[in-house]
Amino acid sequence: MAHLVEEAVIKHADMAEEMQQHAVDCAAYAFKEKRYLKDVASIIKNEFDIMYNPTWHCIVGRSFGSEVTHTLKHFIYFYWGEVGVLLFKTG
């Protein structure tokens, strides 16, 4: 996947820069390939479950609030255009 950090605006991250880049690259691919936000979230979640072991959660949308508990160094919240992406690991 190409590196597309310039398309993302990272609001908060508690993860290694390489993992952040992977999240953004994965989101870029998912937004290009899928029409529905639930499918975008599914692609990102499944990729992170495979690459970084379960259990990851991904929320994608234009308007949502959140309060989550996450595994240390396994959290990112960013915008891709006008759409927010919240990705975090638990357990």
UniProtKB/TrEMBL annotation:
One Gene Ontology term of the molecular function aspect: dynein intermediate chain binding
UniProt similarity note: Belongs to the dynein light chain family.
SMART domains linked: Dynein_light
Protein name as annotated: Dynein light chain
Cited InterPro entries: DLC_sf, Dynein_light_chain_typ-1/2
Gene Ontology cellular-component annotations: cytoplasmic dynein complex; microtubule; nucleus
Record Gene3D superfamilies: Protein Inhibitor Of Neuronal Nitric Oxide Synthase (3.30.740.10)
Record GO biological process: microtubule-based process; mRNA transport; protein transport
Highest taxon, organism lineage: Eukaryota
Record's subcellular location: Cytoplasm, Cytoskeleton; Nucleus
CDD domains listed in its UniProt record: DLC-like_DYNLL1_DYNLL2 (cd21452)
Keywords of this entry: Cytoplasm, Cytoskeleton, Dynein, Microtubule, Motor protein, mRNA transport, Nucleus, Protein transport, Transport
Keyword Metal-binding: no
Organism the protein comes from: Euplotes crassus
